[in-house]
Specification:
With 283 residues, this protein is α/β, with parallel strands linked by helices. Helices cover 33% and strands 20% of the residues. The chain folds into two domains: 3-109, Ribosomal protein L30/S12 (60s Ribosomal Protein L30, Chain: A); 116-281, Alpha/beta knot. The strands form two sheets. It has a seven-stranded parallel beta sheet, with helices on both faces. The longest helix is centred in the C-terminal third of the chain and has 15 residues, at 267-281.
Length: 283
């Protein structure tokens, strides 16, 4: 069992980092990230105790209500040296001013962002999501959740993408930022070229006139689905690096308000459609 420490006051020094600390403060000054919610904390603790976790991110300390501590007892038993601060529900709720965390908060050591070399070599019929300039935390969290749901073997981010270890991104991802391997590419075009050289087929997910329909994509083995930034989509340079440009067929309304009034999908929704179709068709 983790080291249980009872707290009676918000002034307890052991919980100082849980109080009024922003993501930027945690990341910049302390090298930490915050995980919240019983289900997500459990997923993080179980992953961190497993063989594939590596050294980072690693649990640093927890703040729990008594009921959450009881619910997490099995996971806490796998971390016997982990400080676990337990306070009543009213005290823990004062940390954020609302119950979004549902009585369970964990601080984790971040470590450095993984490098592209950490992504797996291509097995048969596997997928990687590659995101260019995706900055909205909800979208990024959803990419990770979709990747986990459809069995994608990794996510590659360019240098402009948002931080996967922001508090809300972790929550939106349902903790899949820990279980889905990911990496950040400092040199985006070079990294995409290297993936192609390693045997990955690069598919640009873009609703352009020259794109082929997703259902017409021929089988091609391990595939990287390259997704663009909200609004602007993929850059022409990135599209030129891809083996194919592929669109999701959508309805074409008979009446448009203007030339730009075309059907479109949020990048997170588009990623789910691509992953589902690739899994279904074996393409």
């Amino acid at each position: 069992m983790a080291q249980v420490i009872r707290v009676q006051s918000l002034t307890h020094p052991g919980i100082a980092l849980f109080r009024d600390v922003t993501d930027a403060d945690l990341r910049g000054a302390h090298g930490l990230c915050l995980v919240e919610g019983v289900r997500i904390v459990r997923r993080f603790l179980d992953w961190a105790a497993g063989p594939g976790a590596g050294a980072r991110p690693s649990p640093e300390r927890l703040l729990l209500t008594p009921s959450c501590a009881e619910s997490l007892a099995g996971s806490l038993a796998r971390h016997p040296d982990l400080p676990c601060f337990v306070g009543d529900e009213a005290l823990v709720n004062q940390i954020a001013g609302y119950r979004l965390h549902r009585g369970a908060l964990a601080l984790a050591q971040r470590g450095a962002d993984p490098l592209p070399s950490a992504l797996p070599s291509p097995p048969q019929l596997q997928t990687i999501l590659a995101a260019e300039g995706v900055v909205h935390v909800d979208n990024l969290g959803s990419l990770f959740r979709n990747a986990g749901a459809f069995g994608s073997c990794g996510i590659l981010l360019d240098s402009d993408c948002s931080d996967p270890l922001l508090r809300k991104t972790i929550r939106i991802s349902a903790g899949r930022v820990f279980t889905v391997p990911w990496a950040r590419a400092a040199h985006w075009p070079d990294t995409l070229r290297e993936l192609a050289q390693r045997g990955w087929r690069l598919i640009a997910a873009e609703n352009s006139p020259s794109a082929i329909a997703l259902g017409q994509l021929p089988p091609g083995g391990p595939t990287v689905v390259v997704l663009g930034r909200e609004g602007a989509g993929l850059s022409p340079q990135t599209m030129d690096l891809c083996h194919a440009v592929v669109r999701i067929p959508m309805a074409d309304p008979d009446v448009r308000i203007n030339a730009d009034d075309r059907p479109s999908l949020n990048v997170a929704v588009a990623s789910a459609v691509f992953l589902h179709e690739l899994r279904r068709s074996g393409a």
